[in-house]
Design brief:
The protein is of the alpha/beta class. About 35% of the residues lie in helices and about 20% in strands. The protein is globular.
């Protein structure tokens, strides 16, 4: 891990907020900024790994050699490691208790030949359980966490727990990202706030952390993600892609500065 300059965990207080989608597109945005081959993604969601699907890597397997185990390569030579690469089939469940999960994450961090990376994004499962604890304890030199939420009041209550969790673990908070922040009607142009509005920014203000940006809903995100093609590559001129790029700029200033 000493060859990796910046390590960032992406967390959320609850599931269903699009945390993995945010992780994948932030990784792609970082790679597009002149870092081809120098960005990695660790899919640390042992029970529900979905990063390979989003990057078109379903069916890939990890290969091993003298230095260790090699990650798979996604678009823009993004290096990817996921539990999905070790399962016999897509629908095979992982029925493990805490110690086994912690052992797997320890191996992902210590036995993978990541090589020289500028950024490693770690996609953690929702909540503040075993996987999140393991990663934050094993990587005390982590640059920080990005917390993903949606605008609803329920998510506001839960994301505060994620902020408190990071602070108790002594990990810097790079900022909050609000996903699914309204959708523009393709017929009349009116914006509809499906899950409310401004929740992420309000929590950031209340908790004294940086608000990184609001990513709008876009039907094309689901379409490209299901096809294994990162949205920011397929729809570079979209409003959502522009927000992803601005978020990355803020993260770069925080970590490089």
């Amino acid at each position: 891990m000493t060859k990796i300059r910046h390590k960032i965990a992406v967390i959320s207080g609850k599931g269903g907020v699009g945390k993995s989608l945010v992780t994948v597109n932030l990784a792609v945005a970082l790679a597009l900024n002149g870092r081809n081959g120098r960005v990695g993604v660790l899919d640390a969601d042992i029970h529900g790994p979905c990063v390979p699907k989003m990057l078109g890597l379903e069916g890939e397997r990890l290969q091993s050699g003298p230095p260790g185990v090699f990650p798979a390569f996604g678009p823009l030579n993004i290096k990817v490691v996921s539990m999905a690469f070790l399962l016999p089939s897509v629908d095979a469940p992982v029925i493990w208790r805490g110690p086994l999960k912690m052992g797997a994450i320890r191996q992902f961090l210590s036995d993978i030949a990541w090589g020289d990376l500028d950024y490693l994004l770690i996609d953690l499962p929702p909540g503040t359980g075993d996987e999140s604890l393991s990663v934050l304890q094993l990587l005390p030199e982590m640059d920080g966490v990005i917390i993903v939420t949606i605008p609803s009041e329920v998510s506001q209550d839960v994301v505060k727990k994620a902020v408190s969790f990071a602070r108790k673990m002594g990990v810097p908070i790079l900022g909050i990202v609000e996903n699914m922040s309204g959708v523009v009607c393709p017929h009349c142009g009116e914006q509809v706030d499906v899950f409310g509005s401004g929740g992420g920014e309000k929590v950031a203000t209340d908790m004294g952390v940086t608000f990184l940006g609001s990513i709008p809903l876009d039907p094309r995100i689901s379409k490209t993600t299901d096809a294994g093609a990162p949205f920011i590559i397929e729809e570079p001129d979209s409003q959502a892609a522009a927000v992803f790029r601005k978020i990355v700029e803020k993260v770069e200033r925080k970590t490089e500065g």
